[in-house]
Amino acid sequence: MILDGTLLRIDRVGMASGYDRAFYSGKHKAHGLNVQVIADPVGRLVWISPPMPGARHDMGPRSA
Q: What keywords sit in the KW lines (predicted)?
C-alpha cells in the first residue's frame, strides 16, 4: 500500500471575510482541500479520506 496526501485546489469565490483562511495552504500558496489517498502498488485506488481544510497538516487529527 502507498499512502500519500495531496491538496485539491479550489476556487475561493463566495468565501466571506476570513472564512476562507482555513482552506488556504501556506505550503502550496493556494486554497484547497486536503485529502489522504491509499493506493495499491499498481496504482489502483483503495481509499480516500474525507476532505479537510487545506490549512490542516497531514499529520493533524481527523474528525469522524
A: Metal-binding
Q: State residue 22 phi and psi, 5-degree precision.
A: -65, -25
CA distance 62 to 51: 10
Q: Output the tens digit of pLDDT for each of the chain's 64 residues.
A: 888 888 888 887 666 666 667 777 778 788 888 888 999 999 899 999 888 876 665 555 554 4
CA distance 47 to 27: 24
- Domain that residue 30 falls in: 2-53
